[in-house]
Amino acid sequence: MCYAYPVMEKNRDWRRDKREITHYIKNELLSELKKDQLRCKILTETDLHTCVYSHIDDFFSRKHYENWFILNEPYLALKKDKKKKPDLVICRRKNNGDIHPFILIELKERRSFSFKGHKTPLDSDTRKLIQLLKENKKKPNSQRNAIVKNYLILAITTDNTDKIHRNNPSDIKKELEERIRTELKKNKMSPALINVIIVNAFYSNKFKTKLQALEKIRKLRDIRLK
Questions:
Q1: What tens digit of pLDDT does each residue of 4-34 get?
Q2: Which of 56, 162, 159, 170 is nearest to 109 (CA)?
Q3: According to the 3-state scheme, what is the secondary structure of 5-40?
Q4: Given CA atoms 150, 174, 177, 202 in this order, what sign does their dihedral have?
Q5: How confident is the model at residue 165 (pLDDT cuts 50, 70, 90)?
Q6: Domain ranges across the chain
Q7: CA-to-CA distance for 176 and 156, rounded, in angstroms?
Q8: Does the structure show a pLDDT above 50 at 136?
Q9: Which of 35, 124, 135, 192 counts the highest number of beta carbons within 10 A?
Q10: Containing H/E element for 180?
C-alpha cells in the first residue's frame, strides 16, 4: 500500500518551527509534566514516556506542523551495523522528501535522586546521545543535517513526604549540567547540545498541599491482586 505525503508548505520557515519546538520543550512541556505528576499520571518511566510523547504530539497538532514528526524509540544506525535507540526522536521532512532527526530526547523517572558515588542514572543516556552526535557529524552536509538540540528529562516522582525536601530540582539540574558539560568538552562538542530538564512538582515549602497526591500515588504503586 502506498501512502501519499501531505503537500509541502513552501512558505513555512522550518527554522522558526524549530525555535518554537525547542522553546515548548524547555518551557511549556515542563509545566505540563508537573501537572501530570500532581494528577498522579507519572508513576513509572513508561508513564513519563507516554506523557512527553502525548504533549509534544498535541503541540504539533495545534501548530499544524506538516513536516515534523515524533517517533517512539526508533533505531538510529551507527557504524559497523550497530544501532542506538533514543527514547524519542523529533524529525523533519526536508524539501527533497528525506526525513532527518533534529532532536533526541532521553527520559528517566525516579522516586528520589542523589549524587552519591561517581555515577548517576543519566550517565548511560548522556553517552548514548554523545555517540549519536559524533556519528551524525560524519554524515554529508553535517551542518545542514545537524541534530541541533537534545534533552535529558528526569522526573522525580516521590511518594514519601520525608523525601520532598531532598530533591531540589535546581540543585540537581545544576550538578547534572556540569557533569554533562564535562563529557561534551571531552568529546570536543558544544555544551549547548544537551539540555537538562528536571520535573519535580513535589518540591515545595508548602508540601502539605501535595499530601493528597502523594497518598494517591502511594496507593496506586501498591496496587496488587488480593
A1: 444 444 557 888 999 999 999 999 999 999 9
A2: 159
A3: CCCCCCCCCHHHHHHHHHHHHHHHHHHHHHHHHHCC
A4: negative
A5: low
A6: 14-219
A7: 14
A8: yes
A9: 135
A10: helix 169-186
DSSP 63: H
pLDDT at 163: 65
**Alpha carbons 111 and 94: distance in angstroms, whole number:** 41
**Grid cell at residue 138:** 560524519
Rounded CA-CA distance 18/156 in Å is: 28
Interatomic CA distance for residues 16 and 67, integer angstroms? 13
Question: Residue-wise over 18-35: b if at least 16 C-beta within 10 A, else e?
Answer: beebbebbeeebbebbbe
Residue 108: beta bridge partners? 154
| 132-133-134-136 Cα dihedral, nearest 10 degrees | 90
Q: 45, 182, 184, 172: which is closest to 120 by C-alpha?
A: 172
Does 172 score more than 80 pLDDT?
yes
Going 158 to 162 to 163 to 164, the CA torsion angle's sign is: positive
- What would the pLDDT profile of 106-133 be if each residue is shown by its tens digit? 999 998 887 776 678 788 899 999 989 8
Quote the distance between the C-alpha of residue 178 and its chain's center. 18
The residue type found at 134 is: K
Half-sphere exposure of 133 (CA within 13 A, CB side): 24
